[in-house]
């Protein structure tokens, strides 16, 4: 980013909006840039006024209009850092302030001055969006985080780290700002007397949750916990080492991701969790509903922040649950939300197409027909999967998994017969039937049995009966457009026949 800033300044850009939550780190870089390009540096905030960083003089200017007037009087070749100036340009900005800022930008271009608007987000009115170029500072990488760790080790000489422990700590701090990393490492020392990666991960989860966009899903699920879906699971297993150094040396590109759609309750979310376990990487869940903000530019800023955070933590799985809720209305976006959905959708598509980072996207959807066709085109996702109602064999597997999950032995039940009588039920419904049977058995002070389950089923109405038409519509849409997550029964039979003939 330092090199990019230098290029923009030397090219004569008069206005740059720098988006970053790390004010101190960005200001340190700007100070270095000013020295390298031979410019003076002034810094302003509404509380401190205008500071000349070269001679240390301060002008007590607290009004944003007055600081623009002061900038006009500064000599040529100057960088002017404006902290939180975007707050004066958000909703319903003062038109006089906007006009003055445009005038100062035009004059600054001829006087070799660059105004740097620093804030944690970029909110510019339409009148300024073409006048100011937005730059998003990426979260710190290893080279920025390593000095933080070294500094804490110097202040705590009693701590001795092995090279492997050092690597684990640096890995754990990825995705945090330098201040967050320092705080988390220091907290670990206070709590345990040493630096523990588990505490760093805990604090990182808290930090991600605060912005409301991303959260670390800290509930690892083995791929064995997913009943059925043999084709999808086999596809994942072939790629489980795709993020390794060996795969990179071999020339394999990092896998982009997959879209999983189908009947509600058939294990799409469980598959997303299991995918992270297969790759042995963290799982980030993006709340697509929270992407959209009411302020101008907030949605695009939220999306950039989510992508930036995921790439900083990479390798990682990024789970977009019910993606159709975010992008289904992108076609009519110009009439409904001023084009916000369309711009966010376009940014997401571009990132999916061009990304080289080790971020594996798992998108799940129920109403896939609402998604724009551009999202389903090859090159965005590596594969599009359709998850149908479980077949007989899958239901047997699901029954065994659920019975064992709640501390019972599957061999004590006739899972084959249970699978037959639960035809048309989803995996989630089978789990609910089992839980209800446990409740009944608990009231009777006994253990659940095949008979208990049978009594529950007599009153159970499955989703396949309530939404039969919708499920058939999904099947018709998926035919020829998506790959079935489960090997079709006809295909299995034909394979068996060909094996016998070959024998």
Secondary structure blueprint with pairings:
Blueprint (H helix, E strand, L loop, with lengths): L1 H9 L4 E5 L3 H15 L2 E6 L3 E4 L5 E2 L4 H9 L5 E6 L11 H16 L2 E7 L6 H4 L3 E4 L5 H14 L7 H11 L4 H15 L4 H14 L3 E3 L13 H9 L6 H6 L6 E6 L5 H12 L3 E4 L11 H16 L2 E5 L3 H4 L5 H4 L3 H15 L4 E7 L7 H4 L6 E5 L4 H14 L9 H7 L5 H17 L6 H8 L5 H4 L1 H11 L4 E2 L4 H14 L1
Pfam families: AAA (PF00004), AAA_lid_3 (PF17862)
Family: Belongs to the AAA ATPase family. Highly divergent.
GO molecular function: ATP binding; ATP hydrolysis activity
What can you tell me about this protein's structure?
Belongs to the AAA ATPase family. Highly divergent. Keywords: ATP-binding, Nucleotide-binding. Residues 254-391 form the AAA+ ATPase domain. The chain is an alpha/beta fold. It has four domains: 2-136, Rossmann fold, CATH 3.40.50; 142-210, no CATH class; 223-387, P-loop containing nucleotide triphosphate hydrolases (Rossmann fold), CATH 3.40.50; 392-465, Helicase, Ruva Protein, domain 3 (Orthogonal Bundle), CATH 1.10.8. It has 24 helices and 14 strands.
Offer a few descriptive terms.
503 residues, Rossmann fold, AAA_lid_3, 4 domains, elongated, alpha/beta, seven-stranded mixed β-sheet, ATP hydrolysis activity, ATP binding, ATP-binding, nucleotide-binding
